[in-house]
Specification:
The chain is mainly α. It is built from ten helices and no strands.
């Protein structure tokens, strides 16, 4: 029977290759555009069909099950993008920034998620390119088998997660999993590394969010103190502080500072 560790490894490796397939289209340097047929009605699209027939060979059944498993795991690509890349830190920090500014729903959620997504592609571009050159392209050219492609695709993401994971968090999940103490990074199971990475990202994001909050908190306190001194108890301080916070953010070129600091924090 397949152990929990082996099952987790298989699911994660399928997920890694699925993430590469869905992400690399946005990073392709010279991807071929769909061909246009002269004199035709439009763009020529390839045909795709999936048929299930009776077969007495166990190997055919295994191959079909693998395809179904991979198609199922591809539906988890958004969760994989959130859990195994820089997306978590970026979206949390940008949400903190909006809360600190006090602009309610500006920027809207769609814009924050979209900006976080493209910043994640930017940060993860070296890893995705390595997955493409070392795993995806050789596998499509039938130079390596499926298992080798999965192992090669998993390596850049594991390296990225290790570089951003605190040892304390990794030790916590290793102790919870009751795994033997690893001697090298290669001995750490991926299903242990991922939650350790996510917890570390949340800690880092909250630390950055605290630093972002401080200057805007000072403005709120100053405005509230001035209003109290003037006897304007019924005037909400947030309504007066908002223009000053926006002015400060614009004067210091806040978007460049926040985005630049976020990207550099992954270096």
């Amino acid at each position: 029977m397949m152990s929990r560790k082996d099952f987790s490894h298989n699911v994660i490796t399928f997920a890694v290759l699925g993430l590469a397939l869905t992400s690399l289209s946005a990073l392709a340097d010279g991807g071929g555009a769909p061909s246009y047929v002269p004199g035709g009605s439009g763009i020529a699209l390839p045909n795709l069909s999936l048929n299930f027939g009776n077969s007495g060979k166990p190997a055919d059944t295994v191959a079909v099950l693998r395809i179904l498993m991979m198609l199922t795991v591809l539906t988890l690509a958004p969760a994989i993008l959130i859990m195994m890349t820089s997306f978590t830190r970026i979206v949390v920090v940008l949400s903190f920034l909006r809360q600190a500014l006090g602009t309610q729903q500006m920027p809207p959620n769609q814009l924050i998620v979209g900006l976080s997504l493209f910043l994640s592609f930017f940060v993860m571009a070296p890893a995705f390119k390595e997955i493409s050159s070392q795993s995806l392209e050789p596998y499509m050219a039938e130079k390596i088998d499926q298992k080798t492609a999965f192992d090669r695709a998993e390596k850049p993401l594991r390296e990225f997660m290790f570089n951003q994971t605190r040892e304390k968090d990794l030790e916590l999940f290793l102790s919870l999993s009751k795994e033997a103490k690893p001697q090298t990074r290669e001995d750490v199971p991926t299903y242990v590394l991922i939650p350790s990475f996510v917890v570390s990202e949340l800690k880092t994001a909250f630390q950055i969010g605290f630093m972002i909050y401080l200057p805007f908190l000072v403005i709120d306190m100053v405005v509230a103190t001035v209003l109290m001194a003037m006897g304007m108890m019924m005037l909400p301080p947030t309504a007066i502080a908002l223009p000053f916070k926006l002015l400060l953010f614009v004067l210091v070129d806040g978007w460049d500072l926040v985005v630049g600091s976020l990207v550099k924090s992954f270096g």
